[in-house]
Structures are given as C-alpha cells and as structure tokens.
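User: Hi! I'm working on a homework problem where we have to compare a predicted structure to a textbook description. Could you give me the structure for the chain below?
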Amino acid sequence: MATTHSIEGKKISKVLGLVQGNTVRARWFVRDIAAGLKAIIGGEIGTYTVLLTRARNEATERMLEESRKMGADAIVSVRYETNSIVPGTTEILAYGTAVKLE
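Assistant: Happy to help. Predicted structure tokens:
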C-alpha cells in the first residue's frame, strides 16, 4: 500500500481498478461533554483521536480486503477523505488503485 503512483523497485504489470473501504461513526454524548470541557482548557481531545484512528483503520482494512478479492499485489495512490453525513457523524473513506506487480 502506497500513497505514491508506483511501488519503488517494482513494475506495475496490470491495473485492476479502484478499491475502497469506508465506515461511518457517530459521536457519543458522554464524549461530547468531555470534549466540550477540553475545548475550554485546550489540548488534544484523546477520545476523538482514538475514535477516528479506529475508523481509519477499519476503512483501510475494508479497502485491503477488497483488493485481496481482486487478486491485487498492491494498492497505489491511496487517499483518505472524511465527510460529515449528518451532524454528529463522520465518514472515513479510504481508496486507491489495486494493481498487479511483476
């Protein structure tokens, strides 16, 4: 898996196509209260950091699983996007191009 358009030292023999994985997470009311208090004094809101890290990992794993089903050797041009679906929710989308290597 690489964010670049190629894998160093390898040649792409075939482009298999787009692969993607996503997850949508909702905030939790109790965490929102703690986050509000943290916003007053400043600093990282650790519970949200953990939540988004888990969501990013889940989206990545879903993308990797899709690439495995296609028989890919690698994924190039990997990107991540976040979107708010409705207030209080966040979607994490991981996508890239599945390829075969020589």
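For your comparison, note the following. Residues 85 and 91 are 7 Å apart (CA to CA). The chain has a mean pLDDT of 88. Good luck with the assignment!
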